[in-house]
Amino acid sequence: MLATASGIIKEEGLHKLFQGLSPALYRHVVYSGVRIGTYDYLRKRLMEEDNQLPIWKSAIAGVSAGALAQYLASPADLVKVHIQMEGRRRLMGLEPRVHSASHAFKEILKKGGIAGLWKGSIPNVQRAALVNLGDLTTYDSVKRYILRTTNLPDNHVVHIMASVCAGFVAALLGTPADVVKTRIMNQPTDEHGRCVFLNIKKPLNLIFFYCC
Which of 21, 50, 112, 128 has the fewest other C-beta atoms within 10 Å? Predict the structure, then answer.
């Protein structure tokens, strides 16, 4: 990771590490707001009479909140991926596809229509569902377990311990779908707005071709 960051700074400049910042901010405003709000709402609705939330109910709330939030934020995520890939494309001597977030948005609409804004949304939503399953569910479960089995009070130490466990599980569950999502979002599209793969003979590529 450090070697890649160093290479970007050396070849493209320090500011390129922040390429795609504006759509990333838009994405997080939508994603974080919907995710936390939806999870809190579902958590309260699913809470049992003794104020306990079984892990399976927490999992349902986490998956639902993550999937909904990511689906709504997917267009901003797509714009971000397009912008972030431009630096590498230009170093390879390829023609620039987009010049700014607004230009990327217009180009996506031009080539794929409204539906094109949700290119790659299927693995994107799957990733978010898995990440939130690992994140929110693990955080709640680990926190309750620590408070129940130790003498620690409900303070920042317990929150940090639960957060570390939640982050590890979320990364483990979400990384495979994240790789698939990024590659699909970065694929060129044909005149119908569908993904164009270099090797469409592979069954997995064929499935993604029709899912895009």
Answer: 50
